[in-house]
Design a protein that fits this description.
15 helices
């Protein structure tokens, strides 16, 4: 259709006239009535034709441009935009192979950390049985914002061993795991800010997937062996206008970098300079450490959203996360969670309260830590002489490959030897920066694998790394 013949009936669209016109433009573009590249009339001409004000057309064009329906060029005018290609579906965060037990002939999968079996199923099952026998009529209703207060108070005691500063139960929000908490913070913080999230150059894929779901751009910030570099955070924040940054201070995933006190202070100084909101991802801060530096939440409570979960220390299947909000933002966080998933179920909050109150949570966490440490020390023994980074209680190793290894080549050779690990390219916050990425792989310590099989697998990886890409196992 020629643009001269396009005469939309604005009465068919609800709302103010500018929105009705923007909707008509969108509908015409999607239906093909107006094809990509069609030049739109000057605002004054279209206003006269539709019997509306020039301001109405201007607002409609602005809204349509924001939605990507039209594009405007100074000196040339406004045009129907070509449809953008759909984004590919994101890769899953978990692998189907984890649902199948390792058999004698199958590969050893060291991509995703798995906790040891410390009798969690029996203990959790017993608590759930007790909860089931005590359920009342409350289970028939949705969970109001205040009903999980007892659970939040229990968690406050549970988290008191960490250097978090002044915290109250009103600052806590309960979520369906750490990933859910991160998405909730993004939803809250990006509502009235640029849709941009600054991340470490190498980061957990869940961060980039969460940003994508929020229609936000991820911006890579350079890092070293302590994590994000303050001077580069300063540069990226200044140049991009981004106001949200994700940091993993204690056990950076995948590099296992850990921030010292000075680095934490400097990053929070930059955050205050640019008025940044900060996601402090501490899901891998596995237990009390008397020598641990203050958390970012303790250093800058007015802007830090602290995220942790029970997945890495009790059982991943609980899907239980904890969000510690800046003071005064807890209610907003709980309302946001309610809008997202109507709150956690009573059996789950009751279960967590019982696990903590009975001491079972503390005992399970201590047993898990002990068994993870056994495997971590075993792995580091095999990797002696290589550059391998790890953190106490964290079932992962970051292996920096000696030259001339490339990460992708190493992963292929390891797979040929029956061992699956993850290359550095899986963790790039901006894939186009891959050519400058360090050549390394992340080795997840599958703690439900027989110790002898894990030992043999790590030994094979170590021999492969030392031998170089032209030698070693085929």
């Amino acid at each position: 259709m020629r643009i001269e013949d396009w005469q939309p009936d604005l009465t068919l669209h609800e709302g103010p006239k500018f929105r009705a016109l923007a909707n008509a433009l969108r509908q015409a573009a999607r239906s093909g009535e107006l094809t990509p590249g069609t030049r739109l009339p000057p605002m004054r001409d279209l206003a006269w034709r539709l019997k509306v004000t020039t301001g109405t057309v201007a607002r409609a064009y602005q809204l349509a441009a924001t939605e990507g329906v039209i594009e405007s060029h100074v000196g040339r005018g406004s045009f129907i935009a070509a449809p953008k290609p759909r984004r590919p579906l994101p890769e899953p965060l978990l692998y189907e192979s984890l649902d199948r037990p390792v058999n004698a002939d199958g590969p050893i999968d060291l991509r995703i950390p798995q906790l040891p079996d410390c009798d969690q199923a029996r203990i959790i099952g017993q608590h759930l049985s007790d909860i089931g026998s005590e359920l009342g009529a409350d289970i028939l209703d949705y969970t109001p914002l205040s009903r999980d207060l007892h659970c939040r108070e229990s968690l406050l005691h549970w988290m008191s061993v960490r250097p978090l500063g002044d915290v109250t139960a009103q600052d806590l929000v309960l979520t369906h795991g750490g990933q859910n908490a991160i998405m909730l913070v993004m939803a809250l913080c990006l509502a009235d800010q640029p849709a941009k999230v600054m991340t470490e150059a190498l980061t957990y894929p869940g961060i980039t997937h969460a940003a994508r779901l929020m229609r936000a751009e991820t911006l890579s910030v350079a890092m070293d062996d302590q994590g994000m570099l303050p001077e580069d955070l300063d540069r990226v924040a200044r140049e991009s206008g981004a106001r949200l940054v994700c940091l993993t201070p204690s056990a950076q995933n995948p590099t296992m970098a850990g921030m010292g006190p000075e680095r934490r202070d400097e990053l929070m100084r930059i955050a205050r300079r640019h008025d940044l909101q900060v996601i402090e991802d501490e899901c891998y801060a596995t237990g009390p450490d008397p020598d641990a530096p203050p958390s970012l939440r303790a250093l800058a409570p007015e802007r830090v959203w602290y995220v942790t979960s029970l997945s890495k220390i009790i059982a991943a299947g609980l899907r239980f996360g904890i969000l510690l909000c800046p003071p005064g933002m807890g209610q907003a966080g709980r309302i946001g969670a309610q809008h997202s998933h109507m709150g956690l179920s009573l059996p789950i909050t009751g279960l967590v309260t019982r696990l903590i109150g009975s001491g079972d949570a503390r005992r399970i966490a201590a047993d898990v830590h002990k068994r993870v440490e056994e495997r971590r020390h075993l792995a580091l023994t095999h990797l002696q002489g290589l550059t391998a980074a790890s953190r106490p209680g964290v079932p992962m190793i970051w292996l920096q490959l000696p030259a001339p290894w490339r990460s992708e080549d190493f992963v292929i050779r390891a797979a040929a030897s029956g061992i699956i690990v993850r290359p550095v390219t899986d963790f790039l916050s901006e894939p186009e920066t891959g050519q400058n990425a360090p050549q390394g792989v992340r080795i997840a310590l599958n703690c439900r694998l027989e110790l002898s099989k894990l030992s043999s697998a790590i030994e094979t990886l170590a021999e492969l790394a030392r031998s170089g890409p032209t030698n070693g196992p085929d």
